[in-house]
Amino acid sequence: MQTDILKEKPSTALAELPSMEALYQRVAHVIPEIEWHLFTPDIKEILRLKKERNAIILAHNYMTPEIFHCVADFVGDSLALARQAEATDADIIVMCGVHFMAETAKLLNPEKTVLIPDFKAGCSLAESVTGEDVRRLKAENPGVPVVTYINTTADVKAETDICCTSGNAVEVVESLGVDKVIMIPDEYLAQNIAKKTNVEMITWPGRCEVHEQFTREDIQNIRDHNEGVVVLAHPECPPEVLDEADFSGSTSAMLNFVEDQHPDTVALITECSMSDNIAARHPEITFVRPCNLCPHMKRISLKKIRAALEDNQFEVTIDPAIAEKARRPVDRMLALKK
Ligand code: 13P
Ligand code: SF4
Q1: How many percent of the chain have pLDDT more than 70?
Q2: What angle do CA 193, 197, 200 make, to 5 degrees?
Q3: Which of 8, 118, 209, 251 could form a disulfide with 299 if both were Cys (CB 3.0 to 4.6 A apart)?
Q4: What would be the CATH architecture of the domain defined by 211-288?
Q5: Domain 4-122+297-311 CATH class label
Q6: 300 CB near ligand 2 (under 6 Å)
């Protein structure tokens, strides 16, 4: 899902930017008025700077509601953000997400300025594997193609045949027409995808520190205490968690499921801001919140986004020799049918 929140207002004139009252209505269900007043000076300045500098803000679904609903131009899962980064004609991309997302945007836009508001916004999956690890895996499994989750560094992508996201992993694996792939680095994602295809997976012991914490007992507990609850889980969760869930999919697939099916009570087995962002638009839905925070995503704040636009911080760069190799598996993924 992509939300084109402010696109219809191309002018740089502050008077034509959305009113603070209109913006507050987007988040009134999840942000108390007293807290909102602390956000408004930064929101106003971010909206002004964005227009002045021809910058675009891409925000992952795990951003907090004041970012997701009030300053982002486009929101979505990793796949949607990569597609949007590929399509934009803005001069500056501010990636409100984690470092691998900003690096992917830079791979697709070598000439543009790509900023990440906090350089330390990392990812336990991206940290779990290096380019050297992939070279070793390839040497141990000659001829087996490497499918790499987009949650990786450019070094790792440079050793990869094709990237995937949680939104297209089955399609990507099957697009290769082989009976075995090296699927790195998320061991649980690989195990979950393996259940949906006949392609054999050689896996790597990487984990998402947020999703690995959920257990089968968590889901059983939620069901025991919330009659009729619909449980949606992200495929980075352990396989036994997905076995207990009603649906699994990328963050945008979860969001679309809730908007299409409109369950009375729902539990999103994923990062906490997902529920807040959907609840802001759907006060009538009850959200059970067994969520975990991603400490990396939560490094991104309005103040840091404003500083990024004011001082061009922090600019993402990639060694051109690595970038040339790393762009290919991302392009190959994006070339697959949407
Ligand atoms: P999505 O592509 O589903 O948004 O997942 C990205 C991520 O980092 C989830 O932890
Ligand atoms: Fe990485 Fe997990 Fe955070 Fe997503 S939620 S950015 S996979 S640590």
Answers
A1: 95
A2: 85
A3: 118
A4: 3-Layer(aba) Sandwich (3.40)
A5: alpha beta
A6: no
